[in-house]
Amino acid sequence: MQHGTSGASAYGYGVLGRILGPVFHRYSEGYRFGRLACDLVEKHGFISYEARINVLMGGVALWTQPITTAIDFMRAPFASRPRQGILLTLATACGKRSQAFSSGMIRSTRYGASRRGSLDFVRRARFRDVADIIVSQQRFIATMQGRAATFSTFSDEQFDEATFEAQLTGDRMP
To answer: Do 21 and 48 fall into the same domain?
Structure first.
């Protein structure tokens, strides 16, 4: 702060905000640091950090804001994609957006939006681990909606839980 600000420092404030909540249970302060990061990006035009900070802010907003606010932050990187082209950030946003859907929006319309947008994107980008996370979240939603064979399994006519779990090998994401 004594020597000025940059996109990296704005990102640092966002990361600090992300850590404050789950580690120190200071959720409101975490949100405020996330807002600071967003404000710095907007004020100084740190466009190359905009998508990353929006993804961070989506996770932070889940703690203190309506879930729709978090989802709006997670959608924002897709609007800026042509300017930035940060594929990993977008894949992360897909995973977090899907998580937000499963956290509080277990409605069939939200499930469909999550499935079509996020999963298709990360599969095309070949982010297999993120795709598996999204599939797991979608199967949870399907189970909560009563669309699985029983409440204790994710399996139904179109999905076999055992086959899915068998491909989650140790050489993949822990």
So the answer is: yes
